Amino acid sequence: MQPEPSHEASALLRQIKPVNQWLEMPYLQSLIETHGRIRVSALLRKTLHQQRESILQGGTLWAPQFTLQKLRANLMALNQSGLRRVINGTGILIHTGLGRSPLSQNAIAAVAETASGYCNLEIDLESGFRGRRADLIRETIQAITGAPAATLVNNNAAATILALRALAHGKQVLVSRGQLVEIGGGFRLPEIMAVSGSILREVGTTNKTRLSDYENAITPDTAAIMRIHTSNYTIVGFTEEPDPKELAALAHSRGIRFIDDIGSGALTADAVPAARSDPNVTDALASGADIVLFSGDKLLGGPQCGILVGNAHSIALVEKDPLMRAFRVDKMTIAALAATLESWTDPEIRNRDIPLWQRMSEPLESVKFRADQLADSLQKLGWNCWPEPSQAFAGGGSLPSEQIPSWAVVVAAPYLSDIKTEEQLGQRLRSGSPAILGRVHKSMMWLDLRTIPPEDQSVVIECFSTIGAN
User: Fold this and answer.
1) pTM, rounded to two decimals
2) Residues 6+ apart with CB under 8 A from 316
3) pLDDT per residue over 280-312, tens digit each?
4) Which of 59, 187, 284, 305 has a CA 20 to 30 Å removed from the CA of 299?
5) What is residue 344's predicted lDDT score, i.e. its pLDDT?
6) Given this chain, do its domains 86-97+357-469 and 103-353 carry the same CATH topology?
7) Which helix (H) or strand (E) holds 403?
8) CATH: 3.40.640.10, 2.115.10.20, 3.90.420.10, 3.40.109.10. Which one for 103-353?
9) How would you classify the pairing of strands 199-203 and 257-263?
10) DSSP class of residue 24?
11) In what order do the strands lie in the sheet containing 222-228?
12) Chain centroid, CA 269 distance in Å
């Protein structure tokens, strides 16, 4: 229990004006017009509570102007508490913490048009009867990937659960020990398999799993072999794993299915060096997989979703599962994915229109030129900085071992009188609007131009100018 307030504190507490008197003040009327009475009232109560707590800890009664300043600060903190725009200077292209792949302008426009009114989400406009939302995108996915059938859900973890429920519920699924990954948020594949109702059967070792390991593990209780692409780490050195074609052939010769979770979602083989080593959907289907699972917001460069492609029977079983409704996508995801897929029909269009591929394919000399420009502008503002060669990464659980040559602007001490360390500079950059996120390396702040598009360079300059003016 809290001790009783002193006589002096009690006297000060009684002098605090009640909420209704504050709300009658002219200044608060202007705040109410801007932010609404409910929000201002709630934050005023919070501010007055802060004043009471200060008095109970030995403080004095706040002047009215100071109380209004605290109220404005609480309003500002609330306004910045939701999603905010961030300029990504980390060099990680698919940054999980920053929303993964940015959408293309075509995808943004499609989302805006779809969200602004009604749409044919589950109505077949030709017949006038109820339709299925996956039908709106199914043919496009099939045409680009060459898959006989396709469907989609809200993320790739959901796709994994549904595929295992539909094809292996109550049965064993063979997985190499070296592929028992942990995905974002601390979720691990064994846990996901348990939720699906399938039974995990580990085969091989962490670094070596042979075809014979799978073959020897198949029993009458086995329903499938599953390959999981280890997209967020690599095992190098003394390693071995079967080719997907060998796994598919073995599975089909024993009357079971082959599930290939490629994760990252590159649709086709690509000439961009960083993407050459990652499995793609076209090759996975050609290997003979019954069903292939991948993300829409990684190397595909679209919205968050999980896409399943494969033979018609396997996809039909997935779509019959009652959890399809729980994992279904909304109208804006479908709109964004459809617009993104349109850009995949031609590599030149894709690299021009989809931000992830724009930045991954930008020539190194272009990135260097922009780093030189930004460094020159910041130097003119008095900042101690210079351009420096850097290494970017795809990120987001994609291409973990592939470095993408880049250039960064390195900002080093001395900073300003009230900014002594790179951590303090980082905090000041993150508090701006938009926020700027860089990476700290060798006790200096690095801003990688591979992840900062040309149109945001002027915003970065303005932010540093504002910091320097404070």
Assistant:
1) 0.83
2) 149
3) 898 899 999 999 999 998 889 999 999 999 999
4) 187
5) 87
6) no
7) strand 398-411
8) 3.40.640.10
9) unpaired
10) T
11) 149-153, 306-310, 291-295, 257-263, 222-228, 172-176, 199-203
12) 23
